[in-house]
Amino acid sequence: MAVLVFSPGYSAPLPGRNRAALSAVGARAGRHSARHLWSRRLVVPSSATGHVFRPDKFRLAFDILLKKGVVSRGDVAAPSKISKRDLLLVHTPAWTRKCLSGRFTAADSARAEMKITRAVIKSHLLHAGGTVKAVELALEGGLGINCGGGSHHARAEGGAGFCLVNDLALAARKAQKERGVKKVMIVDLDVHQGDGTAAVFKGVQPVFTFSMHQSDIYPAKKEVSSLDMDLPRGTGGAAYLRALRRSLPSALDRFKPGLVIYLAGADVCRGDLLGGLALSSEELRRRDAYVAGLCRERKIPLAVTLGGGYRKKAADTARLHAATIRVVLDLHKIKKPA
Ligand SMILES: [Zn+2]
Known about the structure:
The chain has a single domain (4-333), classed as Arginase, Chain A. Helices cover 44% and strands 10% of the residues. It has helices at 19-28, 34-39, 56-67, 84-88, 93-101, 106-112, 118-141, 167-178, 195-201, 237-255, 281-297, 314-333, and strands spanning 4-5, 76-77, 143-146, 184-188, 207-214, 227-231, 259-263, 302-305. It has an 8-stranded parallel beta sheet with strand order 2-1-3-8-7-4-5-6, with helices on both faces. Strand 4 (184-188), helix 9 (195-201) and strand 5 form a beta-alpha-beta unit. The structure holds zinc ion (ZN). Zinc ion (ZN) is lined by residues 190-192, 265, 267, 307-308.
């Protein structure tokens, strides 16, 4: 049975190929000055594309998995289609309208920190459909992996920080509404706080938002998750994994979710252009194996999304994402405990 979800549309197009145009978007957006636009996430152009977010990393990660024989094309499922009703589970009618019509303002682009074209929103809707599909696969066979997704900064009323549709929140709500899942835990280990997800679910009891992130980076104003673990800049792998062991198992045992949606951000690794933590690639693998192992021991269906990862070369980010998928798949293949 397929466990991996991917679409070639995940990687098209590169946002903000023209940096000058993007700055102009920021300048035109009133209170969002061009300087503001480029300083919020300390955006460092990593390539000729002029944007630190490289959607081509998803295709590159998928190519690595194919090339190494980790998956074959037959193992891969396509994203589910996202309807207006799905979007309204999380987003306001006004933002839903914009997402479906493809008509955005300069201020919308400034808040998202990338120029939102019709092609860009189409791609983001595909990613959201991928997370919905990964959740379906998880509920059917224990594991689903979206080779994309993780738009945790997106809010009910609009995009933010490269995120337009909050796929995590949408897939959680849809599972509750249509699949009878009572309690969902979103485990967000991206280096940035899952502020959009926390805002969507603030005070909502059947969804537990767990976010472990670096304290002194974007978003400047943090939201309150069900459990926040703030880590100082420079935290290395050993301290990171200790903090995770101290907090996640007890949260799972107290909350007892019927589904975990995991954001396995790779921007916690040393050398990331936006993050300031210092995990090695081996420690990232250990983290991902640990989370997947906790869910497996407790027989909790697990849906994985990739999220952040911003290295100078998109191919290096893709290697980290591919390693996450590989380690989770390997663990799933081991015979389940009786
Ligand atoms: Zn991030």
